[in-house]
Every structure is written in structure tokens, then in C-alpha cells.
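Supplementary Methods S3. Input chains for the assembly prediction are listed below.
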Amino acid sequence: MNIYRDESNPLFQYVVGLGDDALILGHRWSEWLSKGPNLELDIAASNLALDLIGQANLLLEYAAEVEGAGRSADDLAYLRDTQDFRCHWLCEQPNEDWGVTIARMLMFSTYQYLRYSALMQSTDRQLAEIAAKALKEVTYHRRFAAEWTVRLAQGTDEGHRRVQNGFNILWRFVPELFETSGGERTLANDGIAVASDSLEADWRETMDEVMTKAGVSAPETSGRVMASRHNGHHSEHLGHLLCEMQFLQRAYPKASGATW
Amino acid sequence: MNIYRDESNPLFQYVVGLGDDALILGHRWSEWLSKGPNLELDIAASNLALDLIGQANLLLEYAAEVEGAGRSADDLAYLRDTQDFRCHWLCEQPNEDWGVTIARMLMFSTYQYLRYSALMQSTDRQLAEIAAKALKEVTYHRRFAAEWTVRLAQGTDEGHRRVQNGFNILWRFVPELFETSGGERTLANDGIAVASDSLEADWRETMDEVMTKAGVSAPETSGRVMASRHNGHHSEHLGHLLCEMQFLQRAYPKASGATW
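Predicted C-alpha cells for the full assembly:
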């Protein structure tokens, strides 16, 4: 029995997973602030971060409501430890350079685009509404990432090397994107969630299109899922990220009289 | 009035300052674990970290006793925020590469060597005993750093460039080492503490000796203290360091029933 896997409330787990992806990827984008390649991109990074953290806020609020345990969206964001997070490994990887950041954004925004598109048909009206709102943002994110992938790869040799390096580093996290948990499958059968594996064909087709245009390629990988977010397993990077992201709430907890 | 500057208990501030230097520099050395240039140096880094954190433990225990407010050494280490730390800016700077790490260690262990040597004569017996114990360790640290400074600088061009780069980056933190607060001056007049400015001439002589042998030089700097630890001012790096160092105690506080 894995104490971190709560099969008794699959909708909570599912919505937390959607929220955590947006929160952690949003935090990664916030790390670019004041460090962007130029002023315009620094502002773009802020906007991407804001969009994603806004999505996280809506999703974690809904997750808290579904849980019904008296926890708030802030509690979920700032007071859980790594093993309770449900984000994908791809989202928690470090930014490294602009090439890696763009490769990751193309991969994940394409995934989010397909996931939110399908979730707009969810029989869970709240989820469908959040998805519709988020889809507008993610549509732009995907275009931003696709344009930058092509621009980097078709620009200079150095740009090509860096964005190709991004795909080389990150491609091993692809299989996890399509891993479908039992709870997710049940919710999908009820028309509430989207089974992750149902997104794979479209994802690969879209990625192939952009990557062909850019002249970059996917490296060969084992195709195995290394360890699963569904069991609370994460890469070392998530812990370091949480240390920073959660410091304020943990150093000055509500119990001490602070309000956030 | 600066709320972070407690002039009413200069001995507490002084001992916390000694302890914080050892704690933060020790934490920086612990960051080399599993990442050392080779296995021998990885183990050496562990030992340097252990020595320094051991000194921090003795000093913060004594500081807690002097404070008499019911806080423990662990409380001081893990539950203070940046503005209450009293370490020197030199200690909190990032390790960067081996050259920067070695340059910093030569600079700071030389300083600690002189400070502990003088503190052995303190009329405060507990401080004198801690100093005597620490001096043995720091004597080795200084030899280790001096040998590595010469080895790097006299080895390859790359080694010379890197250790020289270390001094170039870090030399601007030298003036702060010799800044003497009012409380420290009073304690020094009573034979308890060592006035930091009394160490400067010896420090510069020793540094000059090793750096001449290594063929590296000190860059020109303004010679001004940028901001003072005595007022709770620190570089951005300390906050990031504390996020990681304090995560466990803050995520699982004693109030929640955890004991450390």
C-alpha cells in the first residue's frame, strides 16, 4: 500500500494533477524573470508564468472544494511536500538555457492544448469551464513555443544545437505524459476526465510537424516510464523547487498569525 | 532604529556571528558532496563541512545559553530568517567552481585562524575553549586551501585563470571582514571578544605570502563595506541557501510533534 496514493478520491487526484502541472511549470517560468534573453522575452516569461499560475489557482481551488477537507488552494500549493505533488517530471525539470526551456514548453503546451481541448467536453461543468478558459492561454503558449523552436533551430548553429539539446535531455520524460492511472481511466469512462493515453497519437503528430519544420529530431529513448507521479515519485529537482516556492508560507505560517 | 540590531546583548550578537560564519560556510562545503572533482576531494569536502558545522553547533549552543530566551542551537540555525543572521557576505557567496571555492576558503580560513587564535585568550572561558578546539581544525583548513591555491595557480593556465577569477570575484568582500561593530569593540575592551580590525594587518600579510607564491594577485576594489551584516543586510544568496537548509525544520515543525 502506498500511503501517498489515495484511490478513494480519484477526482481530487486528477484535478490536483492538472493544477500541479500548471503551478510547477509556472514557477519554472517565473525563474526567468529578470534573466530573460531580452526585455520583450522577460515580459513574455512573466505572462506565461502568470497564465499558468492563474490556471493552477483555479484548478487547486476546485481540487480543494472536491477534497472537502478544509484545505485551501494555498494550502495545497504551499504546504504539501514532494510526495503529495502530482505534476509530471517534465514540468519540474530545471530551465537550463533558453533552448531547453523552449523545447520543454513546446512539448508541454502541446500536451496541455490537447488535454484542455478534450476536457472542454467534460461532463464535470466546472472542469469544462476551467479548461475553456485555460485553452485560450495555452493556444498562445503553444504558438510562442513553436515559433521559438523554429527560430532557434533555423537561426544559428548554436541555436540549433541548444534547442536540439533540449529535446535530447527532455525526451525521456515523454512516456510519463501518456501514462494513465486507474482512477483517471474510471473518470474518463464516466466522461469526466481525459485518459492521458488517448492524447498520444495527436501529440506525436503535432510535435513531428513542428520539429520537422525546425529540422530537429527526437532522440531514441527506452520508451519506459521511469517512475510515476501517480505514486508520488519525483525527480530531485522538485524538492529544491518547493524549498524556494514554499519558504514564505512555511517560515511565517498561518498559525503564527500571518495571512496570505 | 533598526529592529534587527540588538545592542542590548552584544555577547549574544558576537557569538551568533561566529556561529553563523561556521554554519553558512559549512553548508556551502556540504553542497560539494557527491560533486567533488574526485573521490578524495569529495571526502575532504565532507570533512570540512563537518568541522565547520560542528563549530557552529558549539557556538550556537553557547549563543542560545547567553541569550537565555529558551531557544536552542537548532532554533537559531533553522528558524531564523535572513535579517537575523550575522554571517559575513564572503561565507554566503555561491561556490561557483573549485577555483572560487578554494579562493574563498583561503580568505576565510585565514581569517578564522587569526580570530580563533586571538579568542583563545578571551576572558570568557567558554569562548576560549571553543576557540581552542576550532583552531586545530581551521589550521588544517588553511593549509588545505593554501596548498590548493598554489597547486591550481601553478598547474595549468586554466587552473590559474580559475583561482585568479575566484579572488577577482571575492575580494570586494574583504573590507567587511574587518568592520568592527560598537558591541564588538566594547567586548574587546573587556577582553572577551577580538576587534575585527585588529586582525587586518596579519590577514593581509598572510594572504600576500600565499598569493605571491601562487602567482595570483588581489584585484583593486573600492575598499568600502557595501552593507553590513551587523544590520542584518545580506546578499540575495543567503535567502536561497536558507530555503534549502531550513526546509525540513520548517515543513515539519516541532509544533507538529516532530523532534530533531
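The first helix of chain A runs from residue 10 to 30. Residues 62 and 137 of chain A are 19 Å apart (CA to CA).
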